[in-house]
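Figure-free illustration: sequence to structure, shown twice.
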Amino acid sequence: RVTVVNMAMSPLAVCAAALLLALAAGGAMAQDVGSTITQAMFESMLPNRDPFYTYDAFITAAKTFPDFGTTGQLMKRELAAFFGQTSHETTGGGSQGGYKFIEEINKSDPLYYGRGPIQLTGQSNYRAAGDALNQPLESNPEIVANNPVVSFQTALWFWMTAQTPKPSCHNVILGNWTPTDADRTAGRLPGYGVITNIINGGVECGMGQMPNDPNADRIAYYKRYCDMLDTTYGDNLDCYSQKNFAA
């Protein structure tokens, strides 16, 4: 007599197998940003922030960009980099002074001046961000300073979006950007420094080996957040010797 063995897997076993396969294929499973940046962590990172910048607004905005800070082995580094750069953009001084300001103090444009975590600036950026987010930001740029969710969304839009010849900050910090020969000649190598170049390279980059205060401030914030999130810094943290992308 032949005994037939039932090879069907239980639903639980199927789920377990799928989990193991996903871990083997992708390294780290995608997860919600809130599992890394908890409210307690947010409060610790930004103890002196303006009340405008709420945890709930950040989490809601992050859901608009599901790949932000959720996938790959370097997702914690991405979150540290995002908060490092935006803390400098809104700094009130010192390594715990991030997110103190909503609007640019010394306004560079009568209408399209810096607002929000990334200090979104320029008519073209307001237009492009508005189109992407389905918000009338070109005609009503003050929305960025009045609606905290939209404010965070504009910062995340800038972070996630490549603007040729600049790569996206997201791809740079995750190691998904391959510099061209021209980039290498200009000293632009993968690392946190290239993100500074993307954001404000015309002012802060290409000044030689001498450190400058804005670069140092961005790096100090980044290292603080990397330490808090228990992740590594990576290489090429400054852009002192990088030519800016417009050069």
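We now fold a second protein in the same way, so the two outputs can be compared directly.
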Amino acid sequence: MCIAKANSASGMAVSDECKLKFLELKAKRNFRFIVFKIEEKIQQVKVERLGQPGESYDDLTASLPDDDCRYAVFDFDFITDENCQKSKIFFISWSPDTSRVRNKMLYASSKDRFKRELDGIQLELQATDPSEMSIDIIKGRAI
């Protein structure tokens, strides 16, 4: 049985699985990324896809629909100018221009509360088009 807390701002709940899988990504590095979807019928944010450690940022972007909104977290590994291995966890709010207005409003009104449930997010990116979330943008924000 899954217990979820209601989001007072939008009436949206966050499944425990969302928080548990995020903790696994953050602490154990079991996943490269997680894609989250709002299940409107049950008023809950759920895990839609888990990206395995060997998967890439391209795999994440390919798993985002062209015409619907999603949230995602991505564990980005990079090497600093001082040759140090680092990692940053990005929160991505995907809201393509082609998605329904109702969905855009639903995701926008639930975003801040959902983000607060995921303790450890370091950077945020909002995108309405794939060009707004290219790997070069991710690298530029991380460094």
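Summary for the second example: The longest helix spans residues 101-117.
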